[in-house]
Design a protein that fits this description.
Elements: E1 22-23, E2 29-31, E3 34-35, H1 36-43, E4 47-51, H2 52-66, E5 71-73, H3 80-88, E6 92-95, H4 98-106, E7 114-116, H5 123-132, E8 136-139, H6 142-154, E9 163-169, E10 191-192, H7 197-206, E11 212-217, H8 227-241, E12 248-250, H9 268-281, E13 289-291, H10 296-299, E14 303-315, E15 319-324, H11 333-337, E16 355-360, E17 369-376, E18 385-389, E19 409-414, E20 417-422
Helix pairs in contact: 2-9, 5-6, 8-9
The structure holds pyridoxal-5'-phosphate.
Pyridoxal-5'-phosphate binds at residues 73, 75-76, 94, 117, 219, 222, 252-255, 293-297.
Length: 435
Amino acid sequence: MSADDAVATDPVEWKLLPKTAAVGEDGHLRVGDIDLLDLAAEFGTPLFVYDEYHLRQACRAAVAAWGDGVAYAAKAFLCRAMARLAFEEGMHLDVASGGELHVALSAGVPPAKLILHGNNKSEEELATALECGIGRIVVDSFDEIARLGRLLETLPARSERPAVLVRVTPGVEAHTHEFVRTGGEDSKFGFSVASGAAAQAVAALELLPSVELVGVHAHIGSQVFDVSSFEQAAEVLGRFFAPLGLPELVVGGGLGVPYVNGESAPTQVEWADATRAACARMGVDPSVRISAEPGRSIVAAAGITLYTVGTVKRLLGIRTYVSVDGGMSDNPRPVLYGSGYEAFLPRVVRASRPEPIRLVGKHCESGDLVVPQAFVPADLQVGDVVATPVTGAYGYSMASNYNKVPRPAVVFVADGSARVVVRRETLEDLTRLDS
Ligand code: PLP
């Protein structure tokens, strides 16, 4: 079905829900064999609910498609439980700051399974990574090459040289929001292939005896639906990479996910196969480890956010505003990227949704939208639990305390039990850092 065939008032499409979604005899939505309304009652709202089976299956699908070396991009959603889960399912982890590195290490993920990213890694972040024996560092600038060289002169000598990759920009514009496009020439990330900077960076790293250059890395953007964008990038990358004779090529993340009824996206296998075929056409040796760093496609659809409706304001001839107890502080994507979502009532998940509303948060901004154009059952009322599906990626990880609203709890559900993996912030937490 195309987006044009989708009727706004239809119930939320089943494929937007986590894999263990089921309807109870009472019509309520169950995930991980638990009624979502019971979760809201027990843990309060707003609440992030993740289907653990879905998370594990998504990691396994990525490992099956890409093989050893595929990394979960932790920025999409990170806490210790998630880091452990991705590692247990055979994934490496891509961390993009000293903070993400700290969480992954404190979860017990072996340093050798971590890849450090960042366009402005501090000396401290690099030193921590080197000292712990991180698996890979993705080098992003000439300043960083110099910084690495200086640091390695001062740190105690190691038996193995740290392995590094060069981040390059292939000059391919992914068809996605400009804020999440990263592979074009006008980018703060990496070294341009076209300008020759990427070749200079390779030469500089080959001259640095204290590191081992093992590969090339690129990431063209996020929420990419068109496999041909990945293919074009892989062709540019493959052409640059093949003559270098290096063993690793990483194509980043970016696989899109459907957020609303009528959307569909390629699978991990389609993405991996198209990438490998493009690399082969460009002469990349079959022995090269080609891998990726999916983030959103691992966690987005595993997560649902539950809110409680606090007010319903019907503005005659204008629209109906339904306000919930969260908003841009738990999901800034609608504000940042104009992202759309579905909304539904877990108590009647199969019901049609004839009533157009605007679902808004509780923050002091008119732009505080949860779902700008939502459709809900006509009997929605104050006190109802309302859910937004596909909120497992870049929601909690981008959450803030704006208006001093405490961040929600996160629970993982599986086989009839729920465990809190991140507790809800308290009012005390809000003053913890104040002097
Ligand atoms: N790898 C890198 C270097 C990234 O910058 C990102 C996202 O920004 C990802 C992987 C993950 O992308 P996605 O969540 O779209 O799969």
